[in-house]
Amino acid sequence: MGKLNGKVALVTGAARGIGAAIAYAMASEGAKVVLTDIDQEAAESAANAIRGDGWVGIALLHDVTNPASWETVVADAEREFGSLDILVNNAGILAVQSIAETSLEDFHRVSAVNTDGVFLGIKHGFASMGTRGGSVINVSSLGGMIGAAGQLAYGASKGAVRLMTKCAMAEAAALGLPIRCNSIHPGVIHTPMTEAFYGFGRGTGLDEMFAAAIPSGRLGTPQDVARAAVYLASEDASYVNGAELMVDGGILAAPIQKPKAPK
Question: Among this protein's residues, is 154 annotated catalytic?
Fold first, then answer.
C-alpha cells in the first residue's frame, strides 16, 4: 500500500471495466484520482466507490476526441489537486466488423477515440507534467500486436497507440523531460465491453472456448490490468520506459491452436 502516495492521476474511460479498476487500484495506493468518461453518471458511481473506501477520487465529463474537453478536464484536475503525475489513456472502443462492412466513417469513429484520444492525452499530459515529470500509460491491446479477422479498424488504432507511446518516450528524452511513457496490452479481458461483444458470463460457452486458447487457462480481469498500471506508475518501474507490457495470459508469447467451439 502507498506506492502512489501524493501523486495525482487522471484515468480516461474510468466509468467501468479496466478504467474503473485502474482508478480504484491507484486510489488504494494513495493517489488522488480524476476519473473521466463520456458517461459522467457511471464515472461518478466509480468515484463514489473510491470515496466510500476512504480514498480520493472525483469524476469529470470528458470526450477524449475533443481538444476543448481535454483542456477543461486537465484544468479542473490541476485546480482540484495540482499538476498531473500520472496519466492513463484508457478510453477506447472495440469494433468487430468485416472489411467489406466497414465504412470510412466506421474506421474514423474507432480512430477518433482510440488514436486521436491518446494523442490528445499525451499532448496535454506532457504540458501538465512538464519538467516535474511523471508517467504516461497508454492502454493498447493484444490487438495492437497481432492481427485478427474483423478487427482492421481496431487493430490499426491500437497498433498506432503502441508506436505513439515509443515516439512520446523518445521526444520526452530528447527534451530532457523526466516523463516515462509505456503501453499496456491487455489480452482477452472479461469486461462489460467484451460481455457485449462476446457474451462472456452469459452461459454461451465462449468463456471456456477463449480460456482454452490462453496459456494461463483463464480470461483476464480488469484487476489484472490495474495491477500492471500501478506498477508502471510507481517507482518500482522507474527504469521502465518505452516498454510494451503484455497482460494477456501468455497468448502472444505462446499462441495455442484455434480453440474448439463448445458442444
Answer: yes
Percent of the chain with pLDDT over 70: 97
The verdict on residue 199 lying in a domain is: yes
Looking at the domain assignment, is residue 1 inside a domain?
no
pLDDT tops 80 at residue 256: no
The model carries a pTM of: 0.94
Supply 195's cell numbers. 460481455
Q: Domain range spanning residue 217? A: 8-247
pLDDT score of 35 more than 60: yes
Active-site option among 24, 154, 231, 239: 154
Look at the chain and report how many structural domains it folds into. 1
CATH code of residue 54 = 3.40.50.720
pLDDT at 262 over 90: no
